[in-house]
Design brief:
five-stranded mixed sheet; two-stranded antiparallel sheet; 12 helices; 7 strands
Length: about 300
């Protein structure tokens, strides 16, 4: 990228004035904002590792070492941190959030093998006009990572409703005032696996109950919160019937079986799974945030 900087001399005092150098993302760096954006988008959105980008640039006649690309990514991350902080603060203004974590392979310098790290995602719901999402990388799956993001150990902790998949690491947030809402899709998935893999009649019957619940949700997906809550009155009898049916089936099934585990998963989380029935702002499941992190 070529920049032309004008120079002017005062006719009286001979003072020389030159136009300032245009601001760069990396101070005194060679890469333009466009090139840096290309590297970041390729790495984080298109999932192209830096070593592949190095080869791509080589084919185009540009020798850019992956170590240089890595340095650019790090410096861009530092420059973007205020934006991340502002987006995080905006998320914590809302009373309903999704949260999810997914494992990623991490290779530390000097190690010859990878170990499991995690990317956490926090976002507003599909019903919220503000579609915001924040990703956080951590080396562990500890619930402390969630508590830190929600600022629960500060004077102004977040105390809204957190929609999750039911992972136990989120439980510590409940002790600090957060309301738990669990994902109905996760509960349904366990019965679908029973039916798809084993032809289970219990799984098939459960899917019919879940299907009835989701029929109501699809009908009010674009409605406002009061209309959605009003429509969910039709879902309450379905949910109650599903709960009673699960309790009856559980008494007939021996401990340790796949069917018992599927039923126990739902029964142990029933209050959190059905919390959406009493709040029109809550989604029925956690699929929205899972799709935010999916490639």
């Amino acid at each position: 990228e070529r920049h032309v900087r004008g120079k002017w001399v005062c006719a009286h005092c001979q003072t020389l004035v030159q136009a300032p150098v245009p601001a760069h993302v990396i101070d005194k760096g060679l890469p333009t904002a466009g090139l840096l954006a290309q590297v970041l988008v390729a790495k984080f959105l298109d999932h192209l590792p830096l070593y592949r980008q190095e080869h791509i640039f080589q084919r185009a006649g540009m020798a850019i070492a992956r170590s240089t690309l890595a340095q650019w990514v790090g410096e861009c991350g530092a420059q973007l941190q205020p934006l991340v902080d502002a987006l995080s603060a905006e998320l914590l203004r809302h009373q309903v959030l999704h949260a999810d974590e997914t494992p990623v392979a991490m290779l530390k310098p000097g190690n010859k093998k990878t170990h499991k790290a995690y990317v956490w995602s926090f976002c507003t719901t599909t019903y919220n006009p503000i579609k915001a999402v924040v990703f956080r990388f951590t080396e562990t799956r500890s619930g402390q990572n969630v508590r830190e993001f929600l600022r629960q150990e500060t004077d102004t902790p977040w105390t809204g409703t957190l929609v999750t998949d039911g992972y136990s690491g989120y439980n510590a947030t409940i002790e600090r005032g957060v309301t738990a809402a669990n994902c109905m899709a996760h509960a349904r998935r366990k019965f679908h696996e029973l039916w798809a893999n084993h032809g289970s009649q219990v799984g098939e019957q459960a899917l019919k109950f879940f299907g009835a619940l989701y029929d109501v949700e699809r009908a009010v997906a674009d409605a406002d919160s009061p209309a959605r809550l009003d429509a969910r009155r039709r879902s309450r009898p379905i949910a109650d019937a599903l709960h009673q049916w699960m309790q009856q089936q559980r008494q007939k099934i021996p401990d340790g079986s796949a069917t018992a585990r599927a039923i126990d998963y739902s029964l142990n989380r029933w209050v959190a799974l059905t919390r959406f029935l009493d709040d029109g702002e809550l989604p029925i499941d956690n699929n929205w945030v899972e799709n935010r992190i999916r490639p």
